[in-house]
């Protein structure tokens, strides 16, 4: 209608409609749904890899411009290489290397250098007799990957060695401990997110504050070997609803990346994924849903102190130091049957009193005198199938790529995941790390890749 008005009055700039300066462009090459750290990492790597400057028009769409409910900034901010799967170990090693040299990648001219506040105090996993053999197997897997890719060190500690190194720990019930000596610790999540965003925007990525509410797509029906019709979709445009407004903008695009985190399953449903006949590919949903996790900030002047690692007790309770002055953050994942309500981000303080504090006080007696000073809740993009990331194209949508389902380790793996997705899109396959095992194939074949070290 704007065009018609301009055609009717060619000599005038008058328009019956006020132009919204925040509307996304009408066309883009690549639209990334989700402006968390994974989405912005993908955007950065796409621009970094483009052969001609400005050749790719990349738009990142984020529905929460304040990031007040974003999983990235509400996480505990840890990074570790102590995983059981080679793919996760490799992602951690590559991401840790990126973070150590972050200003070589994300420095922006005439802007302050990036300070991640990367505290490399290590992760300390404690194992009971029941799970000590798993820790030994994980240690062997890590050692193989270290030998293959280099850059990490992990040591196993007996209870006596553990007590000598960390005198404040009660070692009762601990049979074995695994301690990361390098490339492990924690950092500021907001700084990493903002660094990726700032750099990507400086390279020409367009930021859009809005919510993707629908897709326009074409359907191509083909018959498989069994004689069944299979519908293949190709996205033509993305509908972006502007915040606090009835206004929306359809955006034509060639490729869509679903990096919507905890809500990526809902984005996939807009394309009919999961609504097909049962026992068919079209009937398999993207197995990613939001799971609420609590993080509690506690104050304990007599606590472990500056040498505190990111400790993961075999009870599932974790804690780490938070700055100086006797502050710590702590949390734990609830049992499957006790998953909290995801309709809000309210904190359950009774969960701390009943499930977390007893384990904290048992493992670190000084924590008997702690005081909770604040708390928050955030969402995991929880992969209900095997708690591992899903990276790659959906088999029935030939221009939508996924980077989701990391179940709590998306933040720490975001630098390497972003590069991997950019390689898939621009090169057609993985170049630096082979992450093909994290594709949709395992879900279709019902062959989970179970990660034993989920926190």
TrEMBL record:
Annotated GO CC locations:
mitochondrial inner membrane
Query: Is the Repeat keyword given for this protein?
Result: no
Residues forming the FAD dependent oxidoreductase domain are 29-424
Give cofactor(s), names only: FAD
Membrane disposition: Single-pass membrane protein
**Per the record's keyword annotation, is Transport included, yes or no?**
yes
Keywords from UniProt, A to Z, are: Electron transport, FAD, Flavoprotein, Membrane, Mitochondrion, Mitochondrion inner membrane, Oxidoreductase, Respiratory chain, Transmembrane, Transmembrane helix, Transport
> Recorded GO terms, molecular function?
oxidoreductase activity
Biological process terms from the Gene Ontology for this record are: mitochondrial respiratory chain complex I assembly
Q: Where in the cell is it found?
A: Mitochondrion inner membrane
**Highest taxon above the source species:** Eukaryota
Chief site of localization? mitochondrion
What Pfam families does UniProt report for this protein, alphabetically?
DAO (PF01266)
Question: What sections of the sequence does the record tag as coiled-coil?
Answer: none
Q: What does this protein do?
A: Required for the assembly of the mitochondrial membrane respiratory chain NADH dehydrogenase (Complex I). Involved in mid-late stages of complex I assembly.
What's the protein here called? FAD-dependent oxidoreductase domain-containing protein 1
Whose protein is this, by species? Seriola lalandi dorsalis
């Amino acid at each position: 209608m704007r065009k018609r008005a301009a055609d009717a009055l060619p000599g005038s700039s008058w328009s019956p409609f006020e132009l919204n300066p925040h509307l996304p462009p009408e066309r883009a090459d690549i639209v990334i749904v989700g402006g968390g750290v994974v989405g912005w990492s993908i955007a950065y790597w796409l621009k970094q890899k483009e052969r001609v400057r400005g050749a790719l028009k990349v738009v990142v769409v984020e529905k929460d411009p304040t990031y007040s409910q974003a999983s990235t900034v509400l996480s505990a901010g840890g990074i570790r290489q102590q995983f059981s799967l080679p793919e996760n170990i490799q992602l951690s090693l590559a991401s840790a290397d990126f973070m150590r040299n972050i200003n070589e990648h994300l420095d922006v001219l005439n802007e302050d250098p990036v300070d991640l506040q990367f505290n490399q105090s290590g992760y300390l996993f404690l194992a009971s007799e029941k799970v000590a053999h798993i820790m030994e197997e994980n240690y062997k897997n890590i050692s193989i990957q270290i030998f293959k890719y280099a850059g990490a060190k992990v040591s196993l500690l007996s209870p006596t060695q553990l007590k000598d190194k960390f005198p404040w720990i009660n070692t009762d019930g601990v049979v074995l401990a695994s301690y990361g000596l390098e490339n492990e610790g924690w950092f500021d999540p907001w700084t990493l997110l903002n660094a990726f965003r700032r750099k990507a925007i400086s390279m020409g990525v367009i930021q859009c504050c809005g919510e993707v509410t629908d897709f326009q797509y074409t359907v191509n029906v083909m018959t498989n070997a069994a004689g069944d019709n299979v519908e293949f979709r190709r996205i033509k445009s993305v509908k972006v609803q502007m915040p606090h407004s009835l206004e929306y903008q359809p955006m034509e695009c060639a490729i869509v990346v679903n990096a919507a985190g905890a809500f990526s399953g809902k984005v996939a449903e807009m394309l009919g994924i999961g609504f097909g006949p049962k026992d068919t590919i079209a009937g398999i949903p993207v197995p990613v849903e939001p799971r609420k996790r609590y993080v509690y900030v506690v104050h304990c002047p007599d606590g472990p102190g500056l040498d505190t690692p990111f400790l993961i007790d075999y009870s599932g309770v974790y804690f780490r130091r938070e700055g100086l002055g006797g502050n710590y953050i702590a949390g734990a994942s609830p049992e499957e049957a006790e998953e909290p309500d995801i309709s809000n981000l309210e904190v359950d303080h009774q969960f701390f009193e009943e499930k977390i504090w007893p384990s904290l006080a048992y493992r670190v007696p000084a924590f008997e005198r702690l005081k909770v000073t604040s708390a928050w809740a955030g969402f995991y993009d929880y992969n209900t199938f095997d708690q591992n990331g899903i990276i790659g194209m959906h088999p029935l949508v030939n221009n939508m790529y996924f980077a989701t389902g990391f179940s709590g380790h998306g933040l720490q793996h975001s630098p390497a995941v972003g590069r991997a997705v950019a390689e898939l899109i621009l090169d057609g396959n993985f170049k630096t790390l082979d992450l093909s095992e994290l594709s949709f194939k395992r879900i279709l074949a019902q062959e989970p890749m179970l990660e034993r070290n989920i926190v």
